[in-house]
Design brief:
Helix content is 19%, strand content 44%. It is α+β, with helices and mostly antiparallel strands. A 4-stranded mixed beta sheet has the order 3-2-1-4, with helices on one face. A two-stranded antiparallel ribbon has the order 5-6.
Length: 79
């Protein structure tokens, strides 16, 4: 399962890594406002629970990461 966290919304779907493509339904939920870390986690949980797949989850975040810390990102609060 993949879960890209983007500015406009959070998408998720079951993917076949060997094919590099989705193999099931794509779920999309708009980014909450304000996009606090807790609110974003709630959206991710909703997407994953709607998909219902028990397997590993990969997350992507459009962000600048230095020294293991997120330094900048879009549509996320500072909390």
């Amino acid at each position: 399962m993949g879960e890209p966290l983007r500015g406009a919304g959070s998408d998720g779907g079951t993917s076949a890594l060997e094919l590099g493509s989705l193999i099931g339904e794509r779920i999309r939920i708009p980014t909450p406002h304000p996009a606090t870390p807790g609110a974003v986690v709630d959206v991710v949980v909703k997407v994953l629970s709607r998909l219902g797949a028990p397997g590993p989850v990969g997350l992507t975040l459009l962000a600048l990461i230095r020294g293991g810390k997120v330094r900048t990102t879009c549509n996320m609060g500072l909390a």
